[in-house]
Design a protein that fits this description.
alpha+beta; six-stranded antiparallel beta sheet; 9 helices; about 25% strand
């Protein structure tokens, strides 16, 4: 595993990190030669046996084909129900289904579908928007009080982003903020990697966006993880408990002023807030940048405080523009252009993921002693992954016998 530390010279640091990561590119390509030759690579991560043995249904049964959203099998995430953001009444059509709704940004006010869920460490609500996703099938108005007759806004209009997810809820016990991470964890080696120039461009971009990126491209279980509190584009907290109905989940979110009670920076010990005031009175982007810098420093120092408090409710917003989910491709600027994700993922979905990483790497960069516990985990499938996923599932069964 390679950890990318923060630096005063961000551009130099990112370039050095990208060069270090590219050292594993050729070994990864050798490892993936069997995949290129048509021999599927089985899963190596035994902890995810439940995940690997549970294929989604055939894409013909997906209500929002070519996309499917579901809780990650074996991750310990329980779905409590699906409802409209302004309602506390669950929709019967999702009561027995593991297929979860994807919003496409064209929903009328109050008609975004949200997912109430629970894990061992977190209880909350998720709202996912993917640009150009098929409209979800669901119940009619059903007396929920939402305004379906209002004109539909376009959330993605004049926005570069193609993906947005908002997670809101409570932690069940105190957990150090610096120990919570988000990103991607895979249970098989990667598939066919794109050309070196594409991989390096992607790694360089990720390194600049997430200076504390933990990246492991080689080996049996690749992953890309970064601190939760500095990766989220928006992060808020509120002390009062709210009802299940929460229209804020579909609203335009703003990073709170660092002096506001809803800012995560207010969780810091007063001694660590010294000299922050000069950065407080600025626009939303500057407030986001300020919070990211603060929590990157906490993560790099392995700070045990501040912690998430069970008495408070937290809201995290994530969005990005590199993945075109309807085409399931990476969208790089020219001359690289669009690159399909199908062969890279080896039949594995992308995840909406957050974990409690209790033990980080040792000085020798070994990760064997860490304990990872799920906060939330959802899989985003595209129909192009299904054939490889099914082949891998068959191979996994043969290997285990």
């Amino acid at each position: 595993m390679i950890s990318i530390e923060s630096s005063h010279d961000a551009k130099t640091n990112a370039a050095d990190a990208a060069d270090e990561l590219m050292k594993v590119y050729d070994p990864c390509q050798d490892l993936n030669a069997e995949f290129s030759a048509g021999r599927r690579m089985p899963s190596i991560c035994s902890d995810d046996d439940d995940y690997n043995s549970s294929l989604p249904p055939h894409p013909e049964a997906w209500p929002q084909r070519p996309l499917l959203l579901r809780p990650t099998p074996g991750a310990g995430v329980t779905i409590r129900g699906v409802r409209y953001s302004t309602s506390n009444k669950y929709l019967p059509s999702y009561a027995e289904s593991q297929n979860l709704p994807i919003n496409n940004g064209l929903e009328a006010k109050g008609r975004c579908l949200v997912i109430d869920f629970e894990s061992d460490l977190f209880i909350g609500t998720a709202c996912l928007r993917l640009k150009n996703a098929r409209k979800p099938d669901c119940d009619g108005n059903a007396g929920d009080g939402s305004s379906s007759d209002l004109p539909s806004p376009d959330y993605f209009h004049k926005k570069k982003r193609t993906f947005q997810v908002v997670i809101s809820g409570r932690f069940k016990r105190r957990i150090p903020m610096s120990e919570c991470v988000t990103g991607q964890i895979f249970t098989r080696p990667a598939g066919v990697l794109p050309p070196r120039i594409v991989v390096k461009a992607a790694v360089l971009l990720m390194s600049r966006l997430a200076p504390q990126l933990q990246s492991r491209l080689e080996g049996d279980c690749p992953r890309l993880l970064s601190p939760l509190c500095s990766t989220a584009q928006t992060a808020q907290m509120k002390s009062n408990q709210t009802t299940d109905a929460d229209e804020d989940l579909e609203s335009e979110l703003q990073e709170p002023h660092p002096s506001a009670p809803s800012s995560l920076i207010q969780s810091l010990p007063k001694s660590k807030m010294v000299n922050r005031s000069t950065l407080l009175d600025s626009d939303n982007k500057a407030r986001i940048k300020n919070r990211k810098k603060v929590f990157d420093e906490l993560h790099s120092n392995d700070s045990v405080e501040p912690s998430f408090c069970p008495q408070s409710e937290y809201c995290f917003e994530f969005y990005q523009h590199l993945i075109l989910f309807d085409k399931f491709a990476l969208d790089f600027p020219k001359p690289v252009g669009q690159r399909s994700l199908k062969k890279m993922l080896n039949g594995q979905p992308l995840r909406i993921l957050a974990m409690h990483q209790e033990q980080k790497q040792t000085k020798t960069k070994e990760m064997n002693n860490e304990k990872m516990t799920t906060l939330w985990s959802f899989d985003i499938w595209h129909e192009t992954l299904y054939k490889d996923a099914r082949s891998n599932s068959t191979t996994d069964t043969d290997v285990s016998q």
